[in-house]
Amino acid sequence: IDLTEAYLHIPIRPSHFKFLRFCYEGRHFEYRAMPFGLSSAPRAFTKILAALTAHIRQTPIRIQCYLDDILILSSSAHQARANIKTTIQVLPTHGFSINTKKSQLSPSTRLSHLGSIIDTSQNMVFLSPDRLNNISNMISIRSLRKESH
After folding, report:
1. pTM for this entry
2. Beta-carbon neighbour count of residue 117 at 10 Å?
3. For position 135, what pLDDT does the model report?
4. Where are the transmembrane segments (predicted)?
């Protein structure tokens, strides 16, 4: 499950608005929600989502979160459907929107998650083709740099 503009769901204390101001094309703006790029945003968001995750785990649903990416682990397709349904009902009640275009909301034994492919039918986790390509390109660039020196 992918959350839509996750940081923007976290309100900022009104007395702190003044610290999050900026000017664009002569107009002045201030964030009233946590902006992307704020150095403390990942930690703050993780702590907030951890509290919600703890609540969801009490149902009990096996859930893992990394920033705005949520992975639900289930022992069967039937259980996965029930866990997904519960989770997508709980998230909006706590102010989070689900990005349905980027989320996989049906059970699967093979899933792309955080640059890895998780295949539970083969009990394997491996790098996605994009990630492998990026690593190969980095290695090629480093090799070229070494050769040019």
Report:
1. 0.77
2. 15
3. 87
4. none
